[in-house]
Amino acid sequence: MAMAGLFASLLLTACAGQDILNTFSPKSGYTLTADVPYGEDARQRMDIYQPVEAQNAPVVVFFYGGRWSDGDKALYRFVGEAMSSLGYVTIIPDYRLYPQVKFPAFVEDGAAAVMRARDLARRYGGNPQQLFVMGHSAGAHIGALLATDSGYMNRVGGLRSMISGFVGMAGPYDFLPIYAHDLADMFGPPSRYEQSQPINYVDEQMPPMLLLHGENDTTVYVKNSRNFANAASKAGAPDVTLKTYSSLSHARLIAVLSAPLRGLSSVYDDIDAWIRVRAGLPEPTQEP
Fold first, then answer.
1. Are strands 165-169 and 240-245 parallel, antiparallel or unpaired?
2. In the prediction, which pLDDT does 285 show?
3. Kind and range of the H or E run holding 243
4. DSSP label at 29?
5. For the range 102-108, what are the long-range contacts, defined as Cβ-Cβ under 8 Å and sequence gap of 24 or more?
6. ∠76-123-84 over CA atoms, to 5°?
7. pLDDT profile of the chain (288 residues), mean per 10
8. Domain residue spans of the chain
9. Distance of alpha carbon 251 from alpha carbon 228, whole angstroms
10. What is d(CA 163, CA 118) in angstroms, rounded to the nearest whole number?
C-alpha cells in the first residue's frame, strides 16, 4: 500500500500523469472502437469500450473534465478499462471546448453523445434501457445538467428519463459567483449564469444520483456536492447518495479508478455496487 501511495504521488505530480495511468492499465478484456461520430464536428467523436462477451450490459457514458477547455478521450483509456472490467459497455466522448464554443454548447454535445450511445448500445452488447451518465469535474457538470435540466435531452429528441442514473465525481454544481475571466466569458453574459448551475434544476423527477468527492479537493470544493445533494433531497429527488473521501484530492479521485491505484480507495467498488443495484444486477462473485 505504501508503494502504491508513492506511485500515486509521483504520477499525479507529473505532466503526463494520465499517460502513465494508461500505460499501467490492462489492454485486454475489452474491444476498443475509436472515433465513432455523433455529430459533424471533429470533436464530436467517441470511443467505445466493449467488454469481452458483453450481452445486454449496462452502458456508462463518461465525460472527462478539463475546465471545459481541455481534454481528449484518448487520455482516459484507464477509465474505459476500469468500467469495462466491471462488465459495463463504456463510452467516452470528446466534446467541443472553450474558446471554440461557449456554454451551453458542450452540454448540448453531451446530450447528443448520450442519444448516440443509446442508439448504438445493442450493437456493442449494451442495454439502452440501462444507460448511466458519469463524469469528473467539468464532465460531471455536463452530466449533472443532462440529469436535471430536461431541455437538453428533449432538444435532441430524447427524454431525461432515458438516463438510468448519474455518477458525479468532484463536480462543480453550485459555483456562483464567477470571478475568473475565462469562466465569465465562457458562461456569460451574467444574465445567463444561473442557467449554468445544476443545483438550480433539481426536482423530484431526477434520475438516481451518486455524488463522489474528495475532502482534500482544492480545485472544486466539496461543498458543491454537499449543496447539490441537499438541494436534490429537499426537492424530493427519490435516490441521492453522497460519498466523500477524506484522503482524496481532485485528481486522485479519478486516478484511483486505474488498475494500479484501485487499492488506495473504495471508489471503484462504490461505483460498481451503486450501478449494480440500479441496474438490477447480482453482486459480483467473490474470488475464493
1. unpaired
2. 65
3. strand 240-245
4. S
5. 102/185, 102/186, 102/187, 102/188, 103/68, 103/186, 103/187, 103/192, 103/195, 103/196, 104/145, 104/152, 104/195, 104/196, 106/68, 106/138, 106/142, 107/142, 107/145, 107/146, 107/152, 108/152, 108/155, 108/156
6. 35
7. 48 60 93 98 98 96 98 97 98 98 98 98 98 98 98 98 98 97 98 98 98 97 98 97 96 95 96 97 70
8. 2-9+29-279
9. 20
10. 10
CB 208 within 8 A of CB 265: no
For residues 132 and 80, the answer to whether their CB atoms sit within 8 Å is: no
Among residues 137, 170, 174, the alpha carbon closest in space to that of 242 is found at 170
Q: Show the cell assigned to 133.
A: 451518465
**What's the pLDDT at 14?**
39
pTM: 0.94
Half-sphere exposure of 243 (CA within 13 A, CB side): 20
Q: Strand, helix or coil at 58?
A: strand
Quick count: other Cβ atoms within 10 Å of Cβ 21? Answer: 27
pLDDT confidence of residue 8: 52
C-alpha cell at 113: 453523445
Helices marked H in the chain — which ranges?
Answer: 2-12, 17-23, 77-85, 105-120, 138-148, 151-155, 181-187, 223-234, 250-255, 267-279
The helix, strand and coil proportions of the chain, stated in percent and rounded to the nearest 5, come to 45, 20, 40
Helix locations, 151-222, DSSP H: 151-155, 181-187
Pick among 3.40.50.720, 3.50.80.10, 3.40.50.1820, 2.40.30.10: CATH of 2-9+29-279: 3.40.50.1820
Query: What's the alpha-carbon Rg for the chain, to the nearest Å?
Result: 18
